[in-house]
Structures are given as C-alpha cells and as structure tokens.
Design a protein that fits this description.
With 428 residues, the chain is of the alpha/beta class. Helices cover 37% and strands 15% of the residues. The structure holds pyridoxal-5'-phosphate. The site of pyridoxal-5'-phosphate has 14 residues, from helix 4.
C-alpha cells in the first residue's frame, strides 16, 4: 500500500502548522522522505492513515511500555472521563501516584506533578537555583532535558567557557549561565566547578542518556558526579524523564545506587497522557510554593485523567519479572541485529540499556555525543527508509533510542530481524 493519504495530510498540515508537525523529530527531516500520519495503534503495532501497519519501536518516545491502547489503562481512563476531566483542585489520585513514585524512588521524598518533561526539568532547575542562591548550571553535551531556555544551550568555544544559545530566541544572558560538560568525562565537570566553585546551582544529567541515542555512563561516572556535586555544594538533578520506570521499577538511580537531590520524571509515569514530575529531598522541595518562596504552578497539573493513566500503567510494572521480560526481548532483538550486521559486513554497534537501544552505524565504541556525530548518517537514513518499507517504524534519527514494549512478541522480533537482514543488504 502507498502513503498517498499521509502525503496529502502532510501537505495540508504544512500550511497550518510550522513544518507540518507539533514536535520537530516527527517531520523525518534527519532521514528525508515524508512523515506518516497515524490513525491508530494497538499493542506493538501502529497504523497509518493509508492502512499500512508497522511494528512500532518509538512507543510515543517511551511512554507506551505496556504497548499501545492497553485495555486496562483505556478502561480506567474512560471511567475517569465520566467523573470529570479537570477540576483545578486536588484529588486523591495525586497522592496515590506520588506515594507510588516516592516508594519506588526513595530519593523523591516529595513530588510535584506537572504536565511535561520540559516543565519538570525547568522547574527543578528553578528550584535548584532558588535553594542554592546560585545561577549557573552544568549540563552535558548530547543530553536533552526538554526545551526550556536555560537548557537549549551549546558549548561555546573552548572548555569551561560560557554557553551560547542553541536556538534563536534564547537570550545570551540566559545561555551564559549554562555550561556544557562532556558526558563520561568527570574531568570536564571538575574543571568548571574549580573555575566557579561557588556559582554552580546544579549538575543535571540524564539517568540513562537516550537523546544522543543510547550512550550508557561508564562505571563510576554517575557516582563521580554525586561526589563532585556534594563537594561543591551544588545539587545533582537526575533527569529520569526517559529512564524512570523504563529501565527498572523506579529510576536508573536505583541501579547506580546513588541519591540525587532532585529527580525529574515524565513519559512512562503518564502512560501516554501529558505528565511530568519532579521531586527530591524534603528540605529542598519545601522551598516550593506554597510551602516556600520558589514559584511553580500549573492549571492542568495532576490532571485526573493523566494521574489515572499513570497509576494504571505503573500497576502491572510493579509485578515480578516484568523488567526481566522486557530486557530478554530487547536483548534477543539486539543480538539478532548484531549478528546480521556482522554477516552482511555492515559496520554497526548496538548500545542497549534495559528495553532502550540504539543501532549506531560505526565500528567504534561510543562514549559521548562526539562519537555519535561520527556515525554514518547516510547509512542510517537508508536503513530507516528500508525498515519502514518493510513494516518497521523506527525513530527517524540516529540520535534517538528505540523502545521495546511488554507486548512485542517473538513473532514481532522475528519479523523485525527479517526486515533488518533485508535492510542491511548491500549497506556498506
Ligand atoms: C523527553 C525528555 C524530556 C522532555 O520531556 P517532554 O515531555 O517532551 O517535554 C526531558 N528529558 C528527557 C531525558 C527526555 O527524554
């Protein structure tokens, strides 16, 4: 089947919506070709408006860990709709979800719900600044924390220099307070802290970097950040918007066994509805309005439908063996990809963390975004297009993670690997 209807809708959308999309990565710009318009999704499959079906490895960029249109989540949302969709007042649902989050991630002694990951990181940074009375922040090149001004900043020239805006509209004055350190390079962080020992409010890091593709931290890196933050009285913010309840029940911090001062969540905890959260140590969180002076608010924060979707999504994840199953499926897929790459002589590397993975077109190990920049992007585009033709819907950029759900079946994996083999053919 063709994709004429998608093409038609994209044309119309471009007249009304900038670039035809409401979030840039959806436009397929990195891989060429036109984006698909989606009609529906169920389980591991997604269906476009032309009636094509695909095995989906985007999973709404992470939230759909139970698969699309999970019947129990759907039923709970439908029931909640009948009780009213928003009150602008507190509900018991918020306490229930906060309790679950706080139990699973003990460093989150208190939690505040918001409506997106961007809101979570933006608010956590404001809180870190308000709490410490300092303005500067350290992030890592290649880590993404949403699109707030202070986080849309790239490194200026030279190490430990002031940041510059990575988008028009971000004021220089804002960008200069954001430093970009190199991921997996503690010395690059130390250098900034030594230069500005009393000015850094926080270090923010992805719990498991997935926004430059999956690039796991080296042993000791996260622990080292904890030590440096404590030493310089800066807060450590772990952005687990992607990794939270994705790698394990709780956060990646449970695996590293470190205690961040603040944690950001999103994606899985909203079960496909708009939810974000940030939380941490009580003495920090109590600085937040109305118990403290740091302002933060939201008309739809803690929305009852969103809380319901989150609660129903986390329920089955708490059961024993769930994450083992996810890992097993993903491992099988990744191993299969590597074997086929080797058999076809394609230079490729698969990085995996739990049910997140990225296939990189390189034969070198990847430790930071510079290594990702050196991957063969043309090869990725060809591979992406071939996979799509073969019924596999992958993230349309080399800088993204693939997500496997609990309902990706052995038959899905088999079909995916057949498509991988076909797509690797002659890909040199
Ligand atoms: C997706 C993501 C965000 C932003 O979340 P939105 O809901 O898209 O605003 C922030 N941090 C990380 C690590 C993410 O993966």
């Amino acid at each position: 089947m063709g994709t004429a209807k998608s093409a038609q809708l994209f044309k119309k959308a471009q007249k009304l919506i900038p670039g035809g999309v409401d979030s840039p990565v959806r436009a397929f710009q990195a891989v060429g070709g036109k984006p698909l318009f989606i009609k529906k999704a169920k389980g591991s499959k997604i269906y476009d408006v032309d009636g094509n079906s695909y095995i989906d490895y985007i999973g709404s960029w992470g939230p759909m860990i139970l698969g699309h249109a999970d019947p129990k989540v759907g039923a709970a949302i439908k029931k909640a709709v009948d009780s009213g969709t928003s009150f602008g007042a507190s509900t018991e649902l918020e306490i229930q979800l906060a309790e679950i989050v706080s139990d699973a991630i003990p460093s989150m002694e208190m939690v505040r719900f918001v409506s997106s990951g961007t809101e979570a990181t933006m608010s956590a940074i404001r809180l870190a600044r308000g709490f410490t009375g300092r303005d500067k922040i350290i992030k890592f090149a290649g880590c993404y924390h949403g699109h707030a001004d202070s986080l849309l900043v790239k490194a200026g020239s030279g190490a430990a220099t002031l940041g510059v805006p990575s988008s028009p509209g971000v004021p220089d004055a804002t960008a200069k307070d954001t430093f970009n350190a190199n991921f997996n390079d503690l010395a690059s962080v130390r250098k900034i802290l030594e230069k500005y020992p009393k000015e850094v409010a926080c270090i923010i890091v992805e719990g498991m970097p997935g926004n430059m593709g999956v690039v796991p931290p080296k042993a000791g890196f996260m622990e080292g950040l904890r030590v440096l933050a404590t030493q310089y009285k800066a807060l450590l913010i772990m952005d687990e918007v992607m990794s939270g309840f994705r790698l394990c029940y709780g956060g990646a911090q449970n695996i590293y066994n470190i205690t961040p001062d603040l944690t950001c969540l999103g994606k899985v905890i909203g079960g496909g509805l708009p939810v974000g959260a940030f939380g941490g140590k009580r003495k920090i969180m109590e600085k937040l309005a109305p118990s403290g002076p740091v302002y933060q608010a939201g008309t739809l924060s803690g929305n009852p439908l969103a809380m319901t979707a989150g609660l129903e999504t986390l329920k089955p994840l708490a059961k024993k063996g769930v994450y083992e199953k996810l890992t097993e499926t993903t491992e099988k897929l990744c191993k299969g990809i590597e074997e086929r790459a080797e058999a076809r002589g394609v230079k490729a590397r698969v990085n995996r963390a739990g049910s997140m993975f990225t296939l990189f077109f390189t034969d070198k190990k990847l430790k930071n975004v510079k290594d990702v920049n050196n991957c063969d992007m043309d090869k990725f585009s060809t591979y992406f297009q071939r996979m799509l033709k073969n019924g596999i819907y992958l993230p349309p950029s080399q800088y993204e993670a693939n997500f496997v759900s609990l309902v990706h079946s052995p038959a899905d994996i088999k079909k995916t690997l057949e498509a991988v083999d076909k797509s690797f053919k002659g890909l040199k």
